[in-house]
Write a sequence for this structure.
DNA sequence: GCATGTCAAGTTGTG
DNA sequence: CACAACTTGACATGC
């Protein structure tokens, strides 16, 4: 009924140095260049493989891959990495594991943007799609590349139209993978706001329960859930997190995620995969299952 | 080792 | 009006 996963980091493996987001600041990249980026990327990819194996052994079937596997990826072609062959081999093996993978490119991706912002966005999104290609994953929403619209530019409807227009500039594989998520900010996009975008493009809507609570718009949680569910051409992936302010730290920002999940997730009788966005990662998942059971 | 200041990118609203 | 928040705090420096 409900398959749970988590995002990017495994805290117990991270303690042992198994992390996928080794990176560097700009001046280090300028000093050390692509050779060092390659070393870090290879280590990241190898760690990814180990984390995925760990997940599979634990029965975890859903996982989000970090967007920082390749340091400064926008500055070179992946083939140029000295360790590209080893990286590709590792990714191919990782791609064969029985786990549903997705990515969530960062807030700098503004597909409704213009000029260099749009160029940078397309480049970054294509790199994510390329990663999935290298892993041998068939292009579909099974492996989503999920972003926010992320900016209203003073006119939500016009911005949706521009997003749809720019969507057509993406490679076919990327188009088949892209999804959009409801925002948590009052000026941005609720599930209801995203429906027209889905109508224009077929892009599925990722329902984020926590964002919906912060910024529901006209729909109830169940209505928003069902609308988002109906926008998918397969079993959806949704996101869930609990409020840090409500449960852990009264002074935390309202959007801040809690370390753990504090309430059972209602999936309204549907089959869905859910990525838990909780700071304690796999520990939060384990605690959720202990507390609320595997089935919602 | 560990504390601390700094770090690519865009946009928004909180504090 | 600075800055935190977002996907994920981590890197580099200096004590």
């Amino acid at each position: 009924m409900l398959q749970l996963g988590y995002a990017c980091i495994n805290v117990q493996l991270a303690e042992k140095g198994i992390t996928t987001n080794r990176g560097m600041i700009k001046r280090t990249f300028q000093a050390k260049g692509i050779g060092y980026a390659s070393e870090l990327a290879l280590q990241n990819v190898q760690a990814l493989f180990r984390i995925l194996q760990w997940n599979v052994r634990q029965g975890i079937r859903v996982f989000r891959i970090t967007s920082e596997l390749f340091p400064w990826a926008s500055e070179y072609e992946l083939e140029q990495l000295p360790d590209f062959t080893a990286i590709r081999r590792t990714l191919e093996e990782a791609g064969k594991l029985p786990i549903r993978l997705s990515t969530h490119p960062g807030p700098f991706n503004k597909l409704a943007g213009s000029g260099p912002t749009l160029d940078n966005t397309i480049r970054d999104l294509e790199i994510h799609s390329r990663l999935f290609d290298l892993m041998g994953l068939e292009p579909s929403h099974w492996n989503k590349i999920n972003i926010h619209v992320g900016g209203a530019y003073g006119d939500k409807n016009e911005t949706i139209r521009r997003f749809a227009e720019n969507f057509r500039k993406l490679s076919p594989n990327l188009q088949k993978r892209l999804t959009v998520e409801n925002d948590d900010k009052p000026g941005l996009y609720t599930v209801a706001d995203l429906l027209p975008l889905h109508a224009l493009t077929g892009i599925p809507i990722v329902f984020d329960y926590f964002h919906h609570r912060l910024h529901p718009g006209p729909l109830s949680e169940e209505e928003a859930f069902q609308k988002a569910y109906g926008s998918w051409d397969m079993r959806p992936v949704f996101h869930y997190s609990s409020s840090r302010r409500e449960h852990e730290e009264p002074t935390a920002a309202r959007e801040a995620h809690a370390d753990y999940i504090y309430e059972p997730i209602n999936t309204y009788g549907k089959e869905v995969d859910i990525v838990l966005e909780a700071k304690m990662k796999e520990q939060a998942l384990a605690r959720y299952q202990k507390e609320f059971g595997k089935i919602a």
Q: What stands out?
A: Residues 26-58 of chain A form the longest helix (33 residues). The longest strand of chain A covers residues 2-7. Chain A has a mean pLDDT of 93.
